[in-house]
Predict the structure.
Amino acid sequence: MNSAKQVILRQFKEKPNQYISGELLSKKLNVSRSAVWKNIEQLRQTGYEITACRNKGYLLVGEPDLLDIELLQAKGIYYVESVDSTNLAARQLAEEGADNFTVITAEEQLAGRGRHGRNWHSPKGKGLWFTVILRPEGVPPTGISSVTLVTAAVVADYLSANNIPVKVKWPNDLLIREKKTGGILTEFKGEPDRIDYLLVGIGLNVHHRTVDFPDQLKPLATSLGLEGEVKLKRTELLLAISGRLQQAYNLYFNEGFSLFQPLWKKYNVTLGREVKVKLPNGEIKGKAIDLNESGALLLQDESGTVQTISYGEII
């Protein structure tokens, strides 16, 4: 943010709930009244709610929910204003030796990613986009298959406790009333017998309005704000969710998925339904009847045979 906007905001903070005249701001900045107006407009575009009244000036009536950089950094969370994707940034940190449970977040992602290479719409200041770096010791790649389900269940449980009715769809979607409000992208680097590091990327739509979504997503996506009042700031949400995830991952890597299976089932919208699952080599239809102890989906196909599906996507 340039110094002119910072001066304007400082004037608003020094005189809360008061109109600040354009003439005063013009003198403070040593610029024209037109230049003041341009800076006010730019502040509005970044989320500041500023009203104008003839012969009175400008009044700050609302501020954007920006991430608290100092607080996040004090908690050991990496912050970047803009990044291609937090998973890619986390991968670089991991390659440089970042510790277990390092978290990186950003105000916006320019090339946010979902599963199967899809784009994840991540506009500035609207959501939570963060990645957790994990370094589980002595755990082979086969031991991480359900970390996505654990993540989804923990996030849904926290939001539901705050009166936001989030549900989970196998394997990685967070939904409110059948519309997607969040997703999880899990990636890892390792060998057949060990994991070097695991990246758990989480995207959560928080303050999106309908107009903030691209046209193709408007029928499919929603946000916490569209579905109810978001009482917590994004910084509080991030700290609360990441703290619960740290506890959950410690339990998961020591005890397995069985501890979290009941929690996932509590919030799921998959089991008991007729579904179609897209697999790497085709599709399969059937009834989702249960999860096994490792989080794989048990699907009774059209012939009555129960199939165990460890990887796929419900479409």
